[in-house]
Every structure is written in C-alpha cells, then in structure tokens.
Amino acid sequence: MKIILAILFLALAAQAAVERDSYQVMKEMAANLKPMIQAVLKDMPTTAPYRKIKQDWQNVLSIYDEHKDGEKCIDKVNRIIQAFGNTIRNYLKRNTNEVEKEMLRLFNQHGFEVFTDKYGQMLQSAKNPEYELNDRC
C-alpha cells in the first residue's frame, strides 16, 4: 500500500498543478529532495551495479544548477520532481532486483517514507490560487 501511495503522490506532485499554495509546497519539496539524494549517494555502494544508478541520481541533482532562459520557477520545480519520480519509480515496482531493493532501503533510511507522507498530506490540503503572481525561486 505504501508503494502505491508513493507512486500516486509522485504523480500528483509532478503534474503541472500550478496553484499558488501547491506551488509553494512543491518548491519546498524540491528543495528537500536535494539533501536526501545527496545522502543516498554518499551511502551508496561503489560496486559496478551501482555506477549507472549513481549517474542517474547525479543527473537529477544537476537540474538544480541548470538555468534555462525564460524558464519559470514552477517549470524547474516540475522538472526536478518529475526527474526524481521517474528515477525512484524503478525501486517502487513489485519485481525489483537486489540493487533496486537496496536503493529503496537507502532512500527510506534517509527519510523517503516520511517525506512522501508529509508532502502528500500537504499537497492534498493545498489551495489553488494563481501561481504566476509570485513566481520566484
């Protein structure tokens, strides 16, 4: 059930829901993903099966440093959340291998379950005003 809730949460968060309050929740969520990913990368095994996975997570982190001309903050936040969701989705499947299970264990060790519970509840109760009025990262 937790896996289904996590997938639903990530899908909800990654939608182009541009509501002001939802937007603020998503900005906070994206900001809090970064230290979680960094902590997991630090604790990841360095063996061959983890090399591509490490690169995938480094690619997610690189989005934080990208600056695209004319990009609104909400677009960058959505790119971060979508990249996170697309990458972690591999560990939330039913038929995962040992490497994927270890990655999910590491994420849970660094607060992924608490994170999904907290932000899932916040997004569900968020209001829907216009976000473009104050679109600043």
Describe this structure in words.
With 137 residues, the chain is mostly helical. It has one domain (2-129). The chain has six helices and no strands. The radius of gyration is 15 Å and the shape is globular. Keywords: Signal. Residues 1-16 form the signal peptide.
Q: Could you give the topology of this structure?
A:
Layout: H1 2-14, H2 20-43, H3 51-62, H4 73-88, H5 98-109, H6 112-124
Helix pairs in contact: 1-4, 1-6, 2-3, 2-4, 2-6, 3-4
Signal peptide: 1-16
Keywords: Signal
Task: Quickly list its features.
137 residues; 6 helices; single chain; signal; mainly alpha; 0% strand
Q: Give the overall silhouette.
A: globular
Q: Which stretches are low in confidence, meaning pLDDT under 50 for 5 or more residues running?
A: 16-20
Number of domains: 1
In quaternary terms, these chains amount to single chain
Overall pLDDT confidence: 83
Structure annotation, total helices: 6
Radius of gyration: 15 Å
Give the helix/strand class.
mainly alpha
Q: Beta fraction of the residues?
A: under 5%
Can you write the helix and strand succession as a string?
HHHHHH
Question: What's the total count of β strands?
Answer: 0
Sheet having the most strands: none
Helix content bin: 55-70%
What is the terminal-to-terminal distance? 34 Å
Q: How would you summarize this macromolecular structure in one to three sentences?
A:
The protein has helices spanning 2-14, 20-43, 51-62, 73-88, 98-109, 112-124. The chain is mostly helical.
